[in-house]
């Protein structure tokens, strides 16, 4: 589905200044039906990778193959046939929806753009199916984005991403803007939909615990470089890189004694990084 080898993405500098390397020498795979969780702090390059897979950011070095297409130097005409096989869930659905369109019109937009809408009644029937799939009443299709809560908008965003029955779905921090209780319900829904539809997914997050709930494999990105990759059990049980250790140590746990141990571990890691 996705294969990156030595992937490098550099944003051009301005006024003769050197460019900024957002992703440097990253290699990973996403197999059919697999969820890869990509974890990293803000500015680590994880969103840049997601955008490159979706054809929204150009690849400047290495290789990135998406659904059989080499993305380095690809033209829109060559990528267009597979664009409909890729769904994208944005971090902030409020900004990704047109406020002047109803939810039904927003969800139907990919069907119309890719010529799969048929007539108006067929398009609305498909929208109703999608809304039910993400556990929203059909009547919500007649509402506008501002009339839905954050969690409801993210469900509608999932419906739109699934409209074309993609084989690959990119979810960029889909729960970070939601309350904790709403996050849990959206994550459960995402897992259910992934099992039902069987799509492969790149799930991007800064939260290691969230990724562990969903991902078959976890990749840790730090300052544009991939520093660790493995199953959830491998990464959480025996993290090798100091950054992964710091992420794990910062996770809250219910046991006070274990929490105290993690605080001490986090303090020692931070001190070691300062000395280095």
TrEMBL record:
Coiled-coil regions listed in the entry: none
Protein keywords: ATP-binding, Nucleotide-binding, Transport
Residue intervals of the ABC transporter domain: 7-248
Record carries keyword Transport: yes
Entries under InterPro entries matching the protein: AAA+_ATPase, ABC_transp_ATP-bind, ABC_transporter-like_ATP-bd, ABC_transporter-like_CS, Oligopep_ABC_C, P-loop_NTPase
This protein's record includes keyword Hydrolase: no
Pfam families (UniProt xref): ABC_tran, oligo_HPY
Biased composition (Basic and acidic residues): 259-276
Example GO molecular function: ATP binding
Single biological process term from Gene Ontology: peptide transport
Location of the region described as Disordered in the Swiss-Prot/TrEMBL record: 254-276
Domain of life of the organism encoding this protein: Bacteria
Signal peptide segment: none
Xref: PROSITE patterns: ABC_TRANSPORTER_1, ABC_TRANSPORTER_2
Family: Belongs to the ABC transporter superfamily.
The name this protein goes by in its record: Oligopeptide transport ATP-binding protein OppF
Native species: Rathayibacter tanaceti
Taxonomic path: Bacteria, Bacillati, Actinomycetota, Actinomycetes, Micrococcales
